[in-house]
Task: inverse folding
């Protein structure tokens, strides 16, 4: 385990966060980009909003300042696309539960595995960090 | 005088709450996890803490994206379990300790930690799952709770070094509270897990156990682990472990380990917990 310099340069800090394979760190830039996606998802914590959303997903989303691209990703439940658009998993989880989808099963849809395969990988000890730590470093 | 008598680090995986609430805690999947907590539940029955300072993170339950406090302390009388989309957990309301909480809040601000004060909020699995793991299913929780919520979702989250220093300041604050109280501090979240993207499902048994070793150590090397190391080695949500450092910082330089447990997997997550007490 290495020691952080007490005052790391912010640009270096942010660049490092983009160097992790298959990962979208929820940076301020993503939080800004996905603000209304996340606030929309948050609204699904209220039962009456869940009902209205289920009745007509498109009409409910049209009440929010969300891009067409994001609306299409939400309709398709394309969670990797939503991460790229600034969605955060704890907010998107409100959509998992609206769909009645267990958290781990919803997470598995972001990987290249089926849910049974993903579940088995977890039982077998999870995904190894080996080769998954750094894009540039390849380790 | 109030004193911090012990610290606990523990995962707060929501599925553990489901296991408790649905009585599945003895089955093949959950049995080994709950067996690891048995020692700690018995120890808590003997210790009878008056108050637990419970460091956790909110998972878009009480806080939405509109306000993001880095460190927030609950000074309210009572907190209800949050509805996280499946209905609120059927667990007791959480009773606060406003006198101690406000004393800590004021002390921390005078000690250069500019805390956000929360008077009303619901508390999600980050706070109620550790209570279930330590206390089982009582009619009412056996102690009062001072919630301490940390932003570990939107970057930059606080550094490990800052978390450790906050723990030290919390210890000073508790020591200056005049009432005789047995106070524990719990740091929750982790251990390795990633809940997003194609790398989801990452676990790191070796790193997690090294982290537990460092928590037991007599030096403070663990506070200097940079965010990028947590992210690379333990997954995007493994960063929650910085919250354990608030607990560890509050215990002083030397600690004695009373119990330690580690198990893979629980849902997407590596489960771990450790019980420490300050040592002269």
Result:
């Amino acid at each position: 385990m290495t020691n952080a310099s007490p005052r790391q340069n912010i640009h270096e800090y942010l660049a490092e966060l983009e160097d992790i394979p298959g990962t979208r760190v929820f940076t301020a830039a993503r939080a800004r980009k996905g603000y209304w996606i996340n606030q929309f998802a948050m609204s699904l914590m209220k039962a009456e909003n869940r009902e209205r959303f289920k009745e007509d997903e498109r009409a409910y989303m049209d009440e929010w300042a969300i891009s067409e691209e994001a609306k299409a990703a939400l309709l398709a439940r394309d969670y990797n696309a939503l991460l790229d658009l600034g969605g955060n998993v704890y907010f998107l989880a409100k959509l998992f539960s609206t769909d009645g989808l267990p958290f781990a099963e919803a997470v598995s849809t972001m990987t290249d595995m089926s849910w049974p395969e993903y579940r088995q990988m977890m039982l077998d000890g999870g995904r190894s960090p080996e080769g998954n730590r750094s894009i540039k470093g390849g380790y | 005088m109030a004193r911090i008598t012990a610290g606990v680090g523990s995962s707060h995986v929501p599925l553990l709450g489901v296991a408790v609430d649905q009585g599945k805690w003895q089955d093949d999947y959950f049995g080994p996890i709950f067996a690891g907590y048995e020692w700690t539940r018995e120890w808590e029955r003997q210790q009878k803490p008056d108050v637990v300072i419970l460091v956790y993170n909110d998972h878009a339950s009480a806080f939405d994206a509109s306000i993001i406090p880095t460190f927030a302390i609950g000074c309210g009388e009572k907190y209800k379990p949050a509805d996280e989309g499946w209905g609120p957990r059927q667990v007791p309301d959480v009773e606060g300790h406003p006198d101690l909480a406000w004393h800590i809040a004021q002390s921390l601000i005078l000690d250069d930690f500019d805390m956000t004060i929360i008077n009303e909020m619901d508390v999600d699995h980050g706070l109620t799952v550790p209570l279930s793991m330590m206390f089982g299913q009582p009619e009412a929780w056996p102690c009062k709770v001072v919630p301490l919520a940390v932003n570990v979702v939107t970057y930059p989250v606080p550094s490990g070094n800052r978390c450790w220093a906050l723990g030290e300041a919390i210890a000073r604050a508790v020591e200056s509270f005049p009432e005789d109280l047995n106070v524990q501090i719990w740091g929750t979240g982790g251990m390795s897990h990633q809940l997003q993207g194609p790398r989801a499902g990452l676990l790191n048994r070796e790193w997690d156990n090294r982290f537990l070793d460092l928590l037991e150590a007599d030096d403070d090397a663990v506070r200097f682990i940079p965010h990028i190391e947590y992210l690379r080695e333990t997954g995007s949500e493994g960063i929650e472990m910085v919250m354990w450092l608030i607990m560890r910082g509050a215990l002083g330089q030397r600690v004695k380990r009373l119990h330690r447990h580690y198990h893979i997997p629980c849902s997407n997550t590596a489960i771990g917990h450790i019980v420490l007490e300050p040592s002269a």
About this structure: The first strand of chain B starts at residue 3 and ends at 10. The helical segments of chain B are 14-21, 31-47, 98-110, 125-135, 160-175, 205-216, 227-234, 242-249.
